Amino acid sequence: LSILLSLLVPAHTIRSPDCGGILTPSGLSYRKSGPRISRASVLVPQHLHFCSSRNQINSVKVTELSLSLISDTGLRLSTDVDLSITPAPSSTKVMRLSILADLHVEMNPEGNLELVTSACKPTVEEMQSTEEVERLTPHKSSSSDADKEINVDKICLEVSKLLLLPNEQLLSLTAQFPVTPSCQVQYLPLAAPMFSEQGITISLQTTFQVAGMAIPLPVSPVPFSMPETATSSPSHLTLAFSEHFYTSLFFALETAGAFNMTILVSRASKEGWLLCPEITPLPRQMGSLFQEDLPVVLQAVFRSSPQVVLEEGKAALKLFLTVHVGAGSPAFQSFVSVNVDMSAGLLLSVGDTRMMISAAAIEDIELSLAASDVGPMPAALLEELFLPTIREEVPAQLNVVLSEGVFLPHISSFTYTDVNVVIHKDYVLIPCNLELRARTG
């Protein structure tokens, strides 16, 4: 029975985070100058259904809209809305509607994050009316009078409707993003976010799909947890990525066949290898294999998964390749196989919502003979024949695959600005600011 039950346990119960982010108090209070409040003034009327049937809303002005952290609990939404209401043909009243609502984030059964209200307290205050234009000082309406103008009981129901747009945007966090035409990346939250003085911390696990199928990733040797950031951080958001995240990315690309490489070198003929006619005895040995001129190509395959190593201020990619040297078209015939162990520096940056990754110059490379149909080949000869081509072509072809970048976890309406990429031992921190994209249509 225990074996059967273990088979029924969903795979996600053993998930562990490999990246995440901390939305700081600065990010929570971020607002773009001007349009944020005016846009809220447009959105709010779409959900205002709490006035009595005999009243008409003439205008809505959101004068205050803010979010604040409540440690270990969630958020507090504070909203002040001025409503111009016509209760009768001859009069107009301006009512100040103030709402304090406590919010928290839950994980719904589909595994998506959802913002919900946990408490709500509305108050109504009459500011002025056409009959008392000269009296501009606000005064409290009696609760019975306020109820005649605004149905207070319905207000909190309408507040939950105002969360529809934020929840739609939260859904975009778990979208599948393309890495290559056959490989997609997805960031899945492992639990509801944690709220503290630092901000809102969310832990994510990266999954990859190749040709529409989720692939099993290497097991992380070290559990990852979000590193602490300074409470006074001026950045809106700090993203963090473990060393295992980058190794998983390269593993997924390798599994998708994105790094399969075919490199044209020269031509082989009965007279020898035209690239290096002065080198003997290889040209005579190779020439005996061919009856006509054929293209000489290198086909590189991984004999072990790539590894990414993060040190302070430095990222390196370790590759373990077997390069098959051969000739022939259309049938490839390998006559020499060379094991290549190499290390290249990685450059990391961020543009918009993508992480840009590129392989820099080769830092270390070692060649050894794996198999040969043309007799023994000393290490010096291997290096003279293959090293310049491998050193130049392998990073170049890696960078073609990586040139589009990799989407970072993000919400659809925001982009990242003022980005700083800081590489530490075992993880990368990306402090950045948020910028609200202009909506069209």
From TrEMBL:
SUPFAM superfamilies linked to this entry: Bactericidal permeability-increasing protein, BPI
Q: Sorted alphabetically, which InterPro entries does this protein's record hold?
A: Bactericidal_perm-incr_a/b_dom, BPI_fold-BPI/LBP, Lipid-bd_serum_glycop_C
Q: Which SMART domains match?
A: BPI2
All copies of domain Lipid-binding serum glycoprotein C-terminal, residue ranges: 231-432
One GO MF annotation is: lipid binding
Query: Which Pfam family would be a valid example here?
Result: LBP_BPI_CETP_C
What superkingdom heads the lineage? Answer: Eukaryota
Q: What is this protein called?
A: TENP protein
What organism, scientifically named, is this protein from? Balaeniceps rex
Name of the encoding gene: Tenp
